[in-house]
Amino acid sequence: MKNRILQAYKQAPWRIQIQWIGLFLLGLVLIASITGVYLSVSAQAAASGRKIQSLERQITNINNEIAELTSDLAAARSVDRMKSRAQALGYVPLDPHQAVYLEIPGYNPQADLVLAPPRVNIIVESPSVLSSYRTSLWDWLVQNIWQTPALNLQPVEEMTP
Question: Within 13 Å and on the Cβ side, how many CA atoms surround 79?
Answer without folding.
Answer: 0
